[in-house]
Task: structure prediction
Amino acid sequence: MRIALLTRNPKLYSHQRIIESAHERGHEIVPVDYLKCYMNITSRKPELRYLGERLTGFDAVIPRIAASHTFYGLAVLRQFEMMGVYPLNESVAIGRSRDKLRSLQILARDGVGMPVTAFANDTSRTNDVLDMAGGAPVVIKLLEGTQGIGVVLSETPKSARSVIDAFHGADIAILVQEFIKEAEGTDIRAFVVGRKVIATMERKGADGEFRSNLHRGGTSSKAILTPGERATALKAAKAMGLNVAGVDMIRSARGPLVLEVNSSPGLEGIEKTTNTNIAREIIAFLEKNAKPNRTRTRGKG
Result:
């Protein structure tokens, strides 16, 4: 196969592992900086160019698009789809997962367990919003935040109202979510490829930190999922339409609750924690599924 890897930085651990695994299995893989691509969207035959050359002859494309460049990155991915190139994750699915509000609405529609979440535009209804989320303490999240950035724990009604009013005053969209005390700053990352959970790790926040992100000082260990947790991870990935996903869950008194479904999950932490060759699994999935014009949405909507 000839594979395009959409990335701005092919030297990152995750991208190096994907490149190495593709080469080990006899494939050609070409890193492509999606911000340097440009396209002809007016002709009858879709065309994509990169550094003056036409991008042709690819069997599959692996999108590793940074959250800050989602709009243009997905435009490039849609063009690949319109050209009949098979995407590891489709543009529509990535778009769903990157929109926090939309993704939660889709998960709720499909019956996936998640923390009670409230969203409103009217600042005069702050008390109602807090009540909907179960009252303080609550977790307040920016709709555009990533990797734990823009996530605030407000422990009292007064502090919660102050934070909510401050964000609304700056015209910043937020979600207000119930705080699951029994999770104790710990979550689970389930790595899904196809319709299988191939690796899982538990992440625990640093002392005094309720966020469990590893780059914020958290620690990780290999985790064993219950059948219910495994089913929840697979259901969440399927609801988003993602072939490859990192599903973040917490354990609660009422069962597993999904926090987020990541369409470009990092490989370093989970590969090293679980000693699983995830990059090889990703390439093997493409070997089995990459066929011309097999994209379900073909770059639509």
